[in-house]
Design goal:
The structure holds three protein chains of three kinds.
Chain A (H helix, E strand, L loop, with lengths): L2 H5 L7 H34 L3 H16 L2 H22 L10 H27 L2 H9 L4 H31 L11 H12 L2 H30 L11
Helix pairs in contact in A: 2-3, 2-5, 2-7, 2-8, 3-5, 4-5, 5-7, 6-7, 7-9, 8-9
Chain B lengths: L3 H40 L4 H16 L2 H11 L4 H5 L3 H5 L1 H26 L3 H9 L4 H31 L11 H12 L2 H30 L10 H8 L1
Helix pairs in contact in B: 1-2, 1-6, 1-9, 1-10, 2-6, 3-6, 6-8, 7-8, 8-10, 9-10
Chain C lengths: L12 E10 L2 E11 L4 E6 L5 H8 L7 E6 L2 E2 L2 E3 L5 E3 L2 H8 L2 E4 L11 H12 L4 H15 L14 H14 L4 E5 L7 H16 L4 E4 L3 H6 L3 E6 L2 E6 L1 H5 L5 H15 L1
Parallel strand pairs in C: 3-10, 3-11, 8-9, 9-10
Antiparallel strand pairs in C: 1-2, 1-4, 4-5, 6-7, 11-12
Helix pairs in contact in C: 3-4, 3-5, 4-5, 5-6
Classes of the chains: A mainly alpha, B mainly alpha, C alpha/beta.
């Protein structure tokens, strides 16, 4: 089959499937990142807490999710989740094996892994906020909640952007591993297309290019955002 | 609730797969490290052709998932007659070698950037002092630039090595029986996900812990100049007496 | 090939017609200078006058756009590149000449991963290919001279600024240079530490070393050097013996320059 037909949008063409899969990858990563931001904020707070036990919990989370292969985490959630759900289902009288919805597994896995990296980003951003600005706000009697909302959070957001850009890129690539659950995201679709047409080289190159497009566009978006946020800051040797 | 017999049996099987994981790690670390030296040399060279090639290399290998790179090498290259007939086929036919190749190419991209960061961090004044003394470019490189740059890289490189250990797990997806591959097989046969996961996770955590400690020790040995100020000559004499 | 100068009329260092631009900014507009053996020349000027750039052109840390550098009768060969910029013809010649010109930097620039002693023997051993034992012996003697022998196994990070600069001077001396170049050696030091460095520099001048010193230390320029060169906007404005330059033959600009300095000192 001609290259153009194969990749095109005809009946036998894989173009449409690949594009949809790309969108699914983005959606998956986005959901994962949102989940991760919740875990990340919690773990960051735990690690910054004066209480040793909380710090210990935060450390444990970080160590585990940064130290074990992503594939293992996915297997845990997918097979473990399926076993659990199947067991619950049997308790209710259902028969046979019930698999966890792959998208859910994917978002959760990518989420909890990215959460550990996001925690480091938020923690670093928090520590980098200038104490002087907070003191100035306190000294005019600003209530703590307002201080957090108007001064602290915007600063943390601005300082987190570079780190979050890295985490986003990392999560985009991790999402490819969700293919082992069968979810028709970009990696899996590429795999299916390659296998069914036996044009492995072609499709894996195309898949690779699509991922590069995603990471490239992400860099642009984050770069713009960083520049926009950084407009109020003086340029130093690092932020250009 | 936890079946200890099963746990121990699993642990045994997983431990038997550790040499495979370590093999994947060491080979890709060595080959990837050597390749990264080449890439970073190209990247900082004054020839635009080389510099842009290196930039492209880093972009491609850091911007796409390792899994696609791996499948491309294992499935993609095997598709072509010319590859199958070539002398490289002995290497490219084996899933283990393909995994090592993919891991090495990928880590070379990341490591090259880390090395570049280290090079940038060498204080320019110390380079000028070397030049002013009449050092040749090679002497300058191996007596001043490399020692300082490599020490700067160590923290970031230890992170990269941890990522490399984790990446070896992907080899299981091309039929290499490393720790993750064996773990997945046990899970699929026994459905006892939690126990297997805990064993496998523990093994990786121990490996990473040892790795980080080893690099930290190396860092400590190589940087006496970054430690605290020593006691004065008088004090240290008093201590030895 | 370096033949020692036999005729006293051959200057140790002869620099002529140095021009240097950074982009459109013409920093050096034709500077010439000769140094005989034993000359101690202070180079003064406001920031932007080009004095550091000039010094760095001598040992080619900056490449001059025009002009020549001649050390002990040997002229540095230069040629023009395709893009118009100048480059040395032979790298080896540059390296050899540099090893005869030792530079002391404003920010010391000691090699941070080497001890004091290692810093001193690095050049002599690796560049001048002298035997290790000989280098160590000489290094230890030099350290005694600058008063830092008992710090020889310390790392630069563990020394004060003044100590580091004294080590840097010893490191320069270890190369047995024909001419020593000092690029604002005390500008980065706390005031209390300036004295110890100037003391060492004075002793070097008194033993007959050939020194080119870019400095803001008026005392040194006036009392220790035997020639003063005042640069203004890339050209030599006034030069001569200290008594002349600081006294009768002084130019208006130089007087303004000194008064500015003195006011800052008392403020």
């Amino acid at each position: 089959m001609e290259l153009f037909d194969m990749l095109g949008f005809s009946e036998q063409g894989w173009g449409a499937a690949l594009l949809l899969a790309t969108l699914l990858t983005v959606a998956l990563t986005l959901c994962g990142l949102l989940v991760g931001s919740v875990f990340g904020a919690l773990v960051a707070a735990a690690k910054l807490s004066p209480r040793r036990s909380l710090r210990g919990v935060g450390e444990l989370y970080s160590t585990v999710f940064r130290g074990i292969p992503e594939l293992l985490v996915i297997y845990l959630f997918y097979f473990g989740g399926s076993t659990a759900i199947t067991a619950i289902g049997q308790w209710f009288g259902a028969e046979g094996f019930i698999a966890t919805p792959p998208f859910l597994v994917g978002a959760l896995a990518v989420g909890m892994i990215s959460g550990s990296y996001q925690a480091e980003v938020y923690r670093g951003a928090y520590l980098a906020v200038s104490q002087g600005e907070l003191e100035a706000a306190r000294s005019i009697g600003m209530p703590t909640l307002m201080l957090a909302r108007r001064i602290l959070m915007p600063q943390i957001f601005r300082l987190s952007l570079p780190g979050l850009g890295n985490v986003w890129q990392m999560s985009l690539k991790d999402s490819a591993l969700i293919s082992v659950t069968g979810l028709a995201e970009l990696m899996r679709t590429t795999q299916i297309a390659a296998g069914s047409t036996r044009q492995y080289f072609t499709f894996y190159i195309v898949g690779g290019i699509l991922y590069l497009v995603l990471t490239g566009m992400s860099n642009q978006v984050f770069g713009r955002a960083e520049r926009h946020m950084g407009k109020s800051q003086r340029r130093n040797f690092a932020n250009h | 609730m936890i079946d200890f017999d099963f746990l121990l049996d699993t642990l045994g099987k997983l431990l038997a797969a550790v040499p495979t994981t370590l093999g994947l790690f060491s080979l890709s670390m060595v080959f990837g490290g050597l390749l990264s030296l080449l890439i970073v040399a190209m990247r900082v060279s004054p020839y635009p052709g080389l510099s842009w090639f290196a930039r492209g290399y880093v972009l491609v290998f850091r911007g796409s998932p390792l899994l696609i790179q791996l499948f491309l090498i294992y499935y993609g290259l095997g598709q072509f007659e010319v590859v199958r007939d070539s002398m490289f086929w002995i290497v490219l036919r084996s899933p283990y070698s393909c995994a090592v190749l993919a891991l090495a190419l990928c880590t070379a991209g990341y490591t090259a950037e880390i090395l570049r960061g280290g090079l940038i961090a060498v204080p320019h004044g110390q380079i000028e002092a070397g030049l002013a003394t009449g050092m040749s470019r090679w002497t300058l490189l191996h007596r001043v630039i490399a020692p300082i740059a490599l020490r700067q890289c160590l923290p970031a490189y230890s992170t990269e090595l941890v990522l490399l250990v984790k990446s070896t797990a992907l080899a299981s997806l091309v039929t290499v029986w490393d720790v993750t591959g064996v773990a997945q097989q046990i899970i699929q046969r026994s459905y006892r996900t939690m126990e297997v996961f805990i064993c496998a996770a523990a093994i990786y955590l121990v490996l990473n812990f040892l790795l980080v400690r080893a690099v930290a020790m190396l860092e400590h040995r190589l940087s006496p100049h970054l430690r605290k100020r020593p006691t004065t000559a008088v004090n240290s004499h008093a201590q030895t007496v | 090939m370096n033949t020692p100068s036999i005729t006293p009329s051959v200057a140790t260092l002869a620099v002529s017609g140095i021009h240097k631009s950074f982009g459109s900014h013409h920093v050096l507009k034709g500077i010439s200078m000769t140094a005989q053996k034993g000359d101690v020349i202070s180079i003064l000027g406001a920031s932007g006058s080009g004095k550091s750039t000039f010094l760095r052109c001598i040992n080619l840390l900056e490449t001059p756009d025009q002009g020549s550098v001649c050390l002990d009768g040997e002229t540095l060969q230069m040629r023009q590149r395709k893009d118009g910029r100048m480059e040395p013809v032979q790298r080896k010649q540059v390296e050899r000449m540099r090893s005869q010109l030792a530079m002391v930097f404003q920010s010391f620039n000691l090699w941070s991963h080497m001890t004091v002693l290692q810093n001193l023997i690095e050049g002599p051993m690796r560049v001048q290919k002298r035997a290790r034992a000989e280098c160590v012996e000489e290094a230890e003697a030099l350290l005694q001279r600058v008063g830092l022998f008992d710090r020889r196994d310390y790392y630069p990070a563990h020394l004060s600024g003044g100590q580091q600069q004294r080590v840097a001077i010893a490191r320069a001396l270890a190369m047995q240079p024909q001419v020593m170049l000092f690029d604002e050696p005390t500008s980065a030091l706390d005031p209390e530490l300036v004295g110890e460095v100037l003391k060492v520099m004075r002793s070097l001048a008194e033993e007959g070393r050939t020194m080119l010193v870019v400095t803001h230390e008026m005392g040194f320029a006036r009392n220790v050097s035997n020639r003063v060169v005042f640069m203004h906007q890339g050209l030599v404005d006034v030069e001569g013996a200290p008594a002349e330059v600081f006294g009768a033959r002084s130019s208006e600009r130089f007087r303004q320059f000194i008064s500015g300095h003195q006011e800052r000192a008392t403020a």
